[in-house]
Specification:
Immunoglobulin-like; 3-stranded antiparallel sheet; 6-stranded antiparallel sheet; disordered N terminus; alpha+beta; 1 helix
């Protein structure tokens, strides 16, 4: 017969488990950095297409699930504001065994008399058994074009100007 662990010991183990996983995710993101970029920025006749691509680091082991959420923002006179109606839900994109590159294309109607500067925020989450182990947010940056993605091929920008 196994001895029972005291309740305090069980509680300490339960609290330590997520902290260890968060540390593992933090180390993994240092080895394979998280990033987000605008890989498409087109305006045609009052409609705009904005593509956002993100790279998520592996972490948490095979039972961890990776989720990502994209949010477009526009710049006004005082800073960045979320673009209403374009907040996506978290989308599962893989398990924590290997890195994943994932993207979205968003279609917008524009007013031809005005131009807007857009960027995206990407929220990365690692979860296990429905519980968030770690979360990190990145803004789009340039310099992630490798020829495999983008329109045109290799395009990578921090911002997109649509008119």
């Amino acid at each position: 017969m196994r001895p029972l662990l005291p309740a305090a010991a069980l509680a300490a183990l339960a609290l330590a488990y997520p902290a260890v996983s968060a540390a593992r995710v933090a180390r993994a993101s240092q080895n394979e950095p998280l990033w987000a970029t605008i890989d498409e920025c087109r305006t045609t006749g009052g409609e705009a297409t904005v593509g956002v691509l993100a790279r998520m680091s592996p972490a948490g082991g095979p039972k961890a699930k990776m989720y990502v959420r994209f949010q477009l923002q526009y710049r006004d006179g005082t800073g960045w504001r979320d673009l209403p109606g374009l907040a996506a839900r978290f989308e599962g994109i893989g398990r924590g065994e290997r890195g994943v590159t994932h993207g979205v294309r968003l279609e917008l109607r524009t007013q031809q008399a005005r131009s807007f500067t857009l960027r995206a925020t990407v929220t990365f989450q690692w979860r296990r058994h429905g519980r968030v182990l770690y979360q990190h947010v990145r803004y789009t940056t340039a310099g992630h074009g490798n020829g495999r993605y983008g329109s045109p091929a290799g395009f990578s920008a921090a911002e997109c100007v649509v008119s």
